[in-house]
Known about the structure:
The protein is mostly helical. Helix content is 50%, strand content 2%. The protein has a domain at 48-153. It contains eight helices and two strands; from the N terminus they run αααααααββα. The chain is elongated and about 95 Å long. The model is unreliable at 39-48 (pLDDT under 50).
Amino acid sequence: MTQPHEPDTGHAAPNAGRRLLLASILASYASSFIPWSLARAQTAAPAQANAPEAFLSVSRVITGRAALDPTQANRLYAGLVATVPSFAGQLDALAAFIAANPSAAPQLQAALDAANAPFAKLPRQIATAWYVGVVGAGPVARCVTYETSLMNVVVADRLKPPSYAYGPYGAWSRNPLTAA
């Protein structure tokens, strides 16, 4: 009796050793990304440090607002520390100046300019951060907030900051219709 003939497909049977080798190479490649992302997350954590009370008290004097969002304060502080050299030291000196000269608080910038203080530019940087939502200048400038920046919050009862263009794409490029 003859054996039934199995068709020859031309493919060899799967090799378990090759598949194991391929799986281990892919697993080691994929796992090479894990330590990098964990290290990145660990280094990013200190940048989100809480703003010290000195930053909040100085910010209250500069902005003229008694209540400031603590989450936004943390983000602005972290951004200012990252973009302004020696920010923490200048902030401490500014807080000490305000504490020593409480009558100068309403005219803080004029008092700092008159005293020729080395940290005289700091109130402008803090005010810009709170009102515009941008820290730093030039190539190192970073937008920290937009909708919750004080320039939008103080007018929120009447105006809403647009987050997109009104009308169809390109509507802002056409000339308005003139009355006939």
